[in-house]
Write a structure and sequence with these properties.
The protein is mainly α. It contains 14 helices and no strands. The chain has helices spanning 19-49, 57-69, 79-114, 126-140, 150-170, 178-202, 206-216, 227-245, 247-255, 257-262, 267-289, 295-307, 311-335, 344-361. The radius of gyration is 21 Å and the shape is globular.
């Protein structure tokens, strides 16, 4: 287990340096963002075009342009391609991009919050809490009166309850250490996973149990044009913008509570705000795509490698890389055993588990 001393060193942003150097760094950063946006857009087109039935990329662009802005006005493609692109794959790709970005930025926020590079929603039990809440909604109709958002609300309540439970148990004598927090998160996560398994076995619906088991490993197959999809996209955009604006506070929190106090940031209050925000985001993500692990662990480290540990720069980069990564993971899940589809959590675990082992074995794991 990595101690709090192994947290990446964080430099407070934009201090020192001449104007010319700062201008050059901003220009390189903007070019990097534009490059990542271009890669993400190309990935979106590829993810929509590829699958059991291949669709030419030009047809993908024509279908999307026709539905969004009415151009081209004349339909020259087959109705089957229109249905595949617009009704099946595009909602799935949008959901995948939003989930990848959301998991990446929430993982970065948790790592700053607990000052530990191994933290992510999966390891801290937040995913398990969301899964337990969502499983209760699917199998037993928990929150049925909340309408089409019942699953998301149940997952949010489960994620928030898991987060609060971890923080209450890990807090001793008014202090929380990162090691204790991680160990508590792992224990609570296992307990909630056991609760979810119990709910599955206690249910008398074989079809519901099978759906929950597949959903627990992560899937984007349920995506379609609906209000919950737009809620996911809106939640991810909101969280990403807020974490970017709060970049200096995250920097201070990642350095230590004493530094945060010195810079006018209340560590306890800010942690509570982050806790609610992350629980909301993870609950919405889990409700829409199931439990997908390791994205929140792997992507923040890649983002820091690219732009450094300053959160105002790293959060948008993590969002773009996370979105692109999950789209390729979903494409692999659809293509490896085509026409059979693998749960996407299997793909992300195959990438994330070796990455976690590399982190643990690094002699200076905290030096990003």
């Amino acid at each position: 287990m990595v101690s709090s001393s192994a947290v990446p060193s964080v430099a407070l942003p934009d201090s020192g340096g001449d104007d010319l150097g700062a201008s050059s760094r901003r220009r390189r950063y903007l070019l990097l963002l534009l490059g990542l946006v271009a890669v993400l857009l190309a990935t979106v087109v590829a993810a929509v075009a590829m699958g059991a039935v291949a669709v030419p990329p030009t047809t993908v662009l024509d279908v999307v342009g026709h539905h969004l802005v009415g151009s081209p006005a004349e339909v020259t493609w087959r109705p089957a391609h229109d249905s595949i692109v617009w009704r099946v794959r595009l909602p799935r790709v949008l959901l995948g991009a939003a989930v990848g970005a959301g998991l990446a930025v929430t993982g970065m926020a948790l790592q700053a919050m607990v000052r530990n590079m191994l933290a992510d929603p999966y390891l801290l039990g937040v995913n398990s809490g969301g899964s337990a809440g969502a499983a209760a909604a699917i199998l037993f109709g928990f929150g049925a009166g909340w309408g089409e958002h019942a699953l998301q609300i149940a997952a949010f309540l489960g994620a928030l309850a898991a987060s609060l439970l971890v923080f209450v148990i890990a807090r001793t004598a008014g202090r929380i250490t990162s090691t204790r927090l991680l160990m508590t998160g792992v224990a609570v996560g296992y307990a909630l996973y056991a609760l979810t398994s119990f709910l599955i076995f206690a249910s008398d619906s074989a079809e519901g149990s099978r759906s929950v088991l597949f959903w627990l490993l992560g899937t984007l197959a349920l995506a379609h044009w609906s209000a919950p999809l737009f809620v996911v996209v809106a939640a991810v955009v909101l969280v990403t913008v807020l974490l970017t604006l709060w970049g200096r506070r995250l920097d201070a929190l990642a350095i230590g509570d004493e530094t945060a106090h010195t810079l006018g940031v209340s560590p306890a209050g800010f942690r509570l705000v982050l806790l609610v925000l992350v629980s909301l985001a993870v609950g919405v993500l889990v409700a829409s795509s199931g439990s997908i692990g390791f994205v929140g662990l792997v992507i923040p480290h890649l983002a820091r490698r690219v732009v450094g540990a300053t959160h105002r720069r790293a959060v948008p980069v993590a969002a773009l890389i996370g979105a692109t990564f999950l789209l390729w993971a979903d494409l692999a899940a659809r293509m490896v055993l085509s026409p059979q589809e693998l749960p996407i959590g299997i793909i992300t675990a195959l990438v994330g588990a070796p990455f976690l082992l590399i982190l643990v074995r690094r002699p200076h794991a905290g030096s990003e």
